[in-house]
Design a protein that fits this description.
The chain has 139 residues and is α+β, with helices and mostly antiparallel strands. The chain has one domain: Winged helix-like DNA-binding domain superfamily/Winged helix DNA-binding domain (Arc Repressor Mutant, subunit A). The protein contains five helices and five strands; from the N terminus they run βββαααββαα. A three-stranded antiparallel β-sheet has the order 1-2-3, with no helix packed on it. Strands 4-5 form a two-stranded antiparallel sheet. Helix 1 packs across helix 3, helix 1 crosses helix 4 and helix 2 crosses helix 3. It is globular, with a radius of gyration of 16 Å. The termini are far apart. Keywords: DNA-binding, Transcription, Transcription regulation. This is GntR family transcriptional regulator. InterPro entries: Tscrpt_reg_HTH_GntR, WH-like_DNA-bd_sf, WH_DNA-bd_sf. One of its GO terms (molecular function) is DNA-binding transcription factor activity. It comes from Agromyces binzhouensis.
């Protein structure tokens, strides 16, 4: 992959969040043959980085166009992923200021762990009602 140019969000093979260099997006392993939509895969990678603390509250994301170019997907795919994360409360969209990690990304950690639980439960053959019952018992 080529660098996007001087002053871009691309530096030493990593994408930048504000002034902080992080591996949030690259290298992203998108599986185009998977049953999961590409936008969901992109969102999962950003969600993972936020949950892992690689992106702190207030860190700005690169423009969607730059993310799309680095990842190798359509800009609309990235925008859809970013809107999903905004709806989950992980990202904030500010006119004239771009997109940044929300001030309270703790919800993102819980969302990511819930997704992992759901994936694990599905792999082991659990039904939704069984998982819901288990969570209620443990609560």
């Amino acid at each position: 992959m080529a660098a996007l140019g001087a002053g871009s969000w691309w530096s030493s093979g990593h994408l930048c969040f504000g002034a902080k260099v992080t591996s949030i997006i690259t290298p992203v392993k998108l599986d185009r043959a998977a049953g999961t939509d590409l936008y969901e895969q992109v969102a999962a990678e950003i969600r993972r980085a936020i949950a892992a603390g690689e992106a702190a509250p207030g860190d700005r994301l690169p423009p969607a166009r730059d993310l799309a170019a680095v990842i190798g997907v359509n800009t609309n795919t990235v925008l859809r992923a970013l809107r999903l994360l905004r709806d989950e409360g992980l990202l904030e969209f500010r006119r004239g200021r771009g997109i940044s990690v929300a001030a309270t990304p703790a919800r993102g950690v819980v969302v990511e762990q819930a997704r992992e639980l759901i994936d694990s439960a599905r792999r082991h053959g659990y039904r939704v009602d069984e998982v819901t019952e288990l969570i209620a018992e443990l609560w």
